[in-house]
Amino acid sequence: MTREHFLAASAAAAAATSSPLPARGGGARPGSYCLPLHKGAGDLSFDFQLETLDSDAIFALSDHLGYPVWVNFFASWCGPCNREMRDVTRIAAAYADKGLRMFGIDVEEHEDRVRAFRKQYEIAFPILLDRTSSVFHTFGLHGIPSHIFFAPDHTITCMVQDSLEPREMENEIAVALGRVTSGKTTPSPA
Questions:
Q1: What is the mean pLDDT of each run of 10 residues along the chain (190 residues)?
Q2: Which of 21, 65, 74, 146 has its CA 20 to 30 A from that of 50?
Q3: Which domains does the chain have, with CATH numbers?
C-alpha cells in the first residue's frame, strides 16, 4: 500500500469514526476533534519538503527530527484561519522554549498575499509555501484551517481539519511533547 493510499484510507476512516488516537506517554490525550487515523498510521513517521517564504531555503520536516512539530495549513482568504491566527501565534511563541517547532503552510496563494497576512498577524514562525497543495493533499486534507501535530519521531499525534480553540491547541502540544520517541527511521516521501 502506498503512503498516499494509506493516508486516503485514514481520511476515509475519519469520516466513519470519531475515536481519538491513543496517547503514548505524558498525561495529555488527543482530543475527540482529532481525525482518527487508519490502523497503523499513528506509527508511521513522515517527512515532506516545501519552499519557505522569503528564502531560497527548502524546508524539510526531517531537519526537525527530535522536536515536536505543529503545522498549521492556512490561507489569507479563510475566515476561520484569520479568527484563530492570533491564538496560533501566541501559543506557538509560548511553547517555543519547550522545544516546539511551529510552521505555517500557506495553501496555493501568491507570495505577496502571504507576506501581507504574516505582517497583519505579526507571525514570527516560518511560513512554507504549498504552491500546488501537494503536501496538503498528501495528508488527505481538504479543508482549512487544518493542523497536524507531530511527536519528536514525526509520527502524527493529532490531525484536525478545522480551527482549534486555544485550550485544544495547548492540549495537542502537550500530547506531542509527551510522546516517547520510538527511534524509528523516517521513510522517504512517496
A1: 40 36 53 81 79 91 93 97 98 96 97 98 97 92 94 91 96 87 38
A2: 21
A3: 3-178 (3.40.30.10)
